[in-house]
Amino acid sequence: MPQIIDGKAISAQIKDEVKAQIAALNTQGKKVCLAVIQVGDDPASSVYVGNKKKACAYVGIESLSYELAAETTQEELLELIRELNAREDVNGILVQLPLPEQIDEDAVIRAIDPKKDVDGFHPQSVGALCIGQPGFVSCTPAGIIQLLKRSGIEIAGKECVVIGRSNIVGKPMALLLLRENGTVTVAHSRTRDLREVTKRADILVVAVGKPKMITREYVKEGAVVIDVGIHRNENNKLCGDVDYEDVAPVCGAITPVPGGVGPMTIAMLMYNCANSVSL
């Protein structure tokens, strides 16, 4: 049986550490406040925003909620961001993605003050990660590093393959693994002989966006498999990019879906918020 990497337990551990950090800041008279902006009422976005508010309440971070109509203009959203950038009592700003089609997501991300960019999406945050400077790191990849480290999995010297090259997961994931001294390959939809590439991996991170695409034919025996995907199958049950039942018997460690990577994203958002005070 493989080691099951328990994202729920590890995320709870991180949130408890953040809670203690926030309590210590409060004794120094420092408050931490996160502003969350949602445009429209996309059901999945509403669930994510609700979970973020609950996590803030648990760790002791104040949260401000801005729920804007779907027809909100880009300029109206940018004006709100400018106001929040200027507020000294707001430490972090999060705009829930995706945004309605009339709004340019890139322009919105760029408008957020990098010192309040707790999602880690601003080009300045990404640039800092590239050259090893301090800054916010995208929450999902940062959470995966914590999953590995807190599960006793060594990264240094290992062959690491990331399937997916998105700005939110794939690219920062590769940079973080590199920072931990992994030997990193980024694979994607245009990669030739994908199975041959992935079968080299000691650590395989799958963020491909296709349900159950990765079967045991893609996985080296004893490898660590991290599944970033989340979908609903034909029976409306949650599943990932990895065919868990097929892959689990051959790998050394694996994240389940749900309960693996998902909880870590919000835990690392809380971590970034707590650390925004020192920036």
Structure, described:
This protein has 279 residues and is of the alpha/beta class. It folds into two domains: 27-113, Leucine Dehydrogenase, chain A, domain 1 (Rossmann fold, 3-Layer(aba) Sandwich); 139-262, NAD(P)-binding Rossmann-like Domain (Rossmann fold, 3-Layer(aba) Sandwich), CATH 3.40.50.720. It contains ten helices and eleven strands. The chain has a six-stranded parallel β-sheet with strand order 1-11-8-7-5-6. Strands 3-2-4 form a three-stranded parallel β-sheet, with helices on both faces. The radius of gyration is 19 Å and the shape is globular.
Features:
single chain, 279 residues, alpha/beta, Rossmann fold, six-stranded parallel β-sheet, 11 strands, 40% helix, 16% strand
Q: How would you summarize what this structure contains?
A:
The protein is of the alpha/beta class and 279 residues long. The protein has helices spanning 7-27, 43-59, 74-86, 105-111, 123-130, 139-150, 170-179, 194-198, 244-247, 262-275; strands at 3-4, 33-39, 62-68, 92-95, 159-163, 183-187, 203-206, 224-227, 231-232, 238-239, 253-254. Helix 6 (139-150) packs across helix 7.
Topology of this structure?
Elements: E1 3-4, H1 7-27, E2 33-39, H2 43-59, E3 62-68, H3 74-86, E4 92-95, H4 105-111, H5 123-130, H6 139-150, E5 159-163, H7 170-179, E6 183-187, H8 194-198, E7 203-206, E8 224-227, E9 231-232, E10 238-239, H9 244-247, E11 253-254, H10 262-275
Parallel strand pairs: 1-11, 2-3, 2-4, 5-6, 5-7, 7-8, 8-11
Antiparallel strand pairs: 9-10
